[in-house]
Amino acid sequence: MMRMVLPILYSYRRCPYAIRARMTLQYAGIQVEHREIELRNKPQSMLTASPKGTVPVLIVGDLVLDQSVEIIRWALQQSDPDNWGEVDDVAAQIWIERNDGPFKVLLDQYKYPNRHPNLIQDEVFGAAIALMLKPMNDALESSQYLVGNQQSWLDIAIFPFIRQFSMVNIERFNQLPFLALKRWLTEHLHSQLFHSIMHKHPIWID
Ligand SMILES: N[C@@H](CCC(=O)N[C@@H](CS)C(=O)NCC(=O)O)C(=O)O
Asked: Average pLDDT of 48-63?
């Protein structure tokens, strides 16, 4: 009997890059062999496939995809039932670069103040608002999703980072006057799709 070989996904439950990849793979109906890793003890099989050592990594036959956005694009090429790929590429790219670049830096500074004793927390918070949360709220006031009125992969790609930001200090986040952003975040937090990819897996051992 032929055994189906599933794509292998190395993942870490709370990693926002891994969350965006898992959500899109799930949406596209792609089954994977899930390999949950510990960041401090990465399996050799993962490092052999992708020496840079970040998750997510998706292995499909000879193809190794080790950037979350590459995984998203690959998944949507396989199947895209609700047209998540139909978003202005240039606009999406601008959001992704801002999120994965400077916003991620601020997010880590805000989340781990002990690692950044020289920084003033209120300034980090304010910079994150000015760079990302306020512009996102503005966008979400004029359309239902980040780009246009149809959800796209971009919303899914950004959502895990805003979730993480909100969770650092949820009271503080809730006090922000950004109703449109909160509506968008709540919608994703409550989605069946998000819940379906957050269950726990045992750690993979080679
Ligand atoms: N550009 C990469 C970034 C992935 C990334 O930085 N993932 C983090 C976890 S959230 C990681 O694996 N870091 C390696 C480590 O902490 O050792 C992507 O989009 O996939």
From this structure: 98
